[in-house]
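Hi support team,

I submitted a single chain yesterday and got back a structure, but I'm not sure I'm reading the token output correctly. Could someone confirm the output below corresponds to the sequence I sent? I've pasted both exactly as they appear in my results page.

Thanks,
R.
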Amino acid sequence: MTKIYLDHAATSPVHPQVIAKLVETMGQVYGNPSSIHAAGREARKQLDNAREYLAKSIRAKDQEIILTSGGTEADNLAIFGTAYARKSEGTHIITSQIEHHAVLSACEKLEKEGYDVTYLPVNEQGRIATEDVKDALRDDTILVTIMLGNNEVGTIQPIKEIGELLKDHKATFHTDAVQAYGLLSISVADLNVDLLSVSSHKINGPKGIGFLYQRKGTKLAAQLFGGQQERKRRAGTENVPGILAFAEAVSIAQQTMEEKREQYNHYKNNMISIFEQANLDFKLNGDEQSMLPHIMNVSFAGTDVESLLVNLDIAGLSVSSGSACTAGSINPSHVLVAMYGEEASELRNSIRFSFGYGITDAEVKAAAILTVNIVRRLVK
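Hi R., thanks for writing in. Yes, this is the structure output for that exact sequence:
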């Protein structure tokens, strides 16, 4: 049975060039970057070069990049780091109902510590209104954290507009760019963000590495303590092989960004065309006019998400939903709940296809036909 992987938004396969870079670095660059001997200096040189490249990918300065263990740590450092560094100035935080759990769970913890968090709603396309951010702002607002592109439905948020709004406010502005990085051209100056989170494993890099952009002068309290790495902002010996492999993945992503956008939109259109030709009762979830190219969240009327996912998996197609499976039951996607309400049918019949490196036209066509056949069987 042929296996087709269409869950790249969850994680992506490591690119062969990235694997080669990782293996090479593990064998040759073994020094501790904090050591002053030759092996340490070589590691430091390689690390500094990689950091500079990562910074350029978002039009930032190398000293503004804090290397982390991934997107979750980057989000946590942004949120807890800001909350604790600025507590004397206020305790109000603004976020949205559709953020990744790395953001939502951090905000929920802060609520238990006495912080006041406003969770902004979204429309049926999963988009936040800039006016809602404006209305929620208070004198004691110290942090606004809104994702750049949603990981479940792909809707791109008005980050630039929110950034413009916040120019005249003291609040720190953070965006989780984990799902958008590598597919959208990002300039931190254009977006007017103070903090921005990125993860390697979404762009065919290794797991366990990412970074947080911190605009110069932005207050941030360290969350890990030990050595003086990362300019005393994040203790721990740097993962040099992972960082260099990450930089290699970024290089590939930057060079192929436009090509990938066109390719993934082509895949999306092909799948939609096959669904339409089969007369399936379906609809796309998200903002079709402002959506990440690799994500396609589809609601199939008359189906059950759990049965649909199981049958697709048995047929060799790996896709996902925004739902969390626990003890044989499925909790509805918090993103779809925010978009449609707690009683909506979309909560029970939506799955996410997501495209990435290595996928072919033939595989996308085969995946669409498999889906058609299984949906037809399930709705009878």
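A quick pointer for reading it: The mean pLDDT is 96. Let us know if anything else looks off.

Best,
Support desk
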